[in-house]
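Record 1 of the preview.
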Amino acid sequence: MMGSSEEAAAPLLPAGGAGAGVVRGPGCVQERRKARRGGRIPYVELFFVAVTTLASSLPITCLFPFLYFMIRDLQVAQREDIGYYAGFLGASYMVGRSFAAIFWGVVADRIGRKPVIVFSILSVVIFNTLFGLSTKYWMALTTRFVLGALNGLLAPIKAYSIEVCQTEHQALGLSIVSTAWGLGLIVGPALGGYLAQPVEKYPHVFSRESIFGRFPYLLPCLGVSFFAAIVLISCIWLPETIHRHEFLHKDIKRIKGLSLQQAYGDSPRKKSLFQNWPWMSTMISYCFFGLHDTAYSEILSLWAVSDRKYGGLSFSTEDIGGVLAVAGASLLAYQLIIYHWVHKFLGPIMSLRIASALSILILSTYPFMTNLSGTKLSFAFYSAAMMKSVLAITISTGICLLQNNAVLQEQRGTANGVSTTAMSFFKAVAPVGAGVLFSWAQKRQDAMLFPGDQVVFLMLNLVELIGLIFTFEPFMVLPPAPDA
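->
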């Protein structure tokens, strides 16, 4: 594991005397802090990781509940073309993020994790508020694109969650990122749904002459920005983890002569990222699993609310909202209480393999739920959705842990930036593909082979199966041992 190699290297950086040629950086201070902790979980640092990740994820989906009405009120399209313009506006954030994610990863490796995290949260405060103040379509589109481009938090926060933890707690650190991110994607739509158009929903509280009467979609954006502002202030106490060392010329021979440092420098992880096959091989699975998860999220809602004559469950929007809320709560409990033990006994690679295999089995049961009704249907659907969420987070956390341990600390930000760019692309493609597939499937309810909803879940399982296959040799190569 990377954590152990970094901790082993720390004693080579004494404060003075023979090591006076070494300038200590904040990373060394963090290593000493971890050593003094004596194996205890870094609750304070992980709390910062959770709230900063949550603040970064809330703006992504906050707009979806009111997106249709916002496009309508901006008067940029006829009613039948609203979906077309809404699609561009909804995708603009991911497009901006795909352009800039690698840049922010490189910056995080060069100047540190904390500056990029602080700047990203500041961009949320400013541009999410400006989005709520948009009175023209081009302004809404621009602010969302810029917000995606400037919010470079996801790459450094993954690296940061690894670096504040000792080796045995790294899985917990990454799972906190995944949990907070998933929680934000659930809470965001809730904020948008309850706080948008407050004058119409809460006329006894908000008057039409107020600022919220003129800007009906400002309140949910302002709520997210206010939370981000609180997080921004808390970042003052955020410790830096990046190592910054300057060695005098006379010390270079001494350090190179040490076997551990020589192994460190000659490790395959020191090569270019694209020559690092352990890292590249995890990227392939990461993309397939990400494509599956995004497509599943869209299809789940579409399928659940569609009519039974089209193979759906005839759920209301409140019903599916309740399912997502319970799935989110179960996810939080699993990450905080259970996942640590799963990782301890199975490890990242075995846990993600088992989780992906079980995910395929659970997803295969969805088409048969149309034969149920009442309490039986609710129990089956809620249980399946909860287990699917838990398994998905087990997969993503395990593969992120493998990725971050396949590279050196000075490459982690860049590596996570590249993976974020790849995932942004797949997350832009997946909803389009899922929507086309679902529309096509609803027109073949009478097909003899895999009718309607069955073919939808079959395709989802095929993507998951490909991701599972790529976790085995010769496709996936595990990271080398620190002293290899």
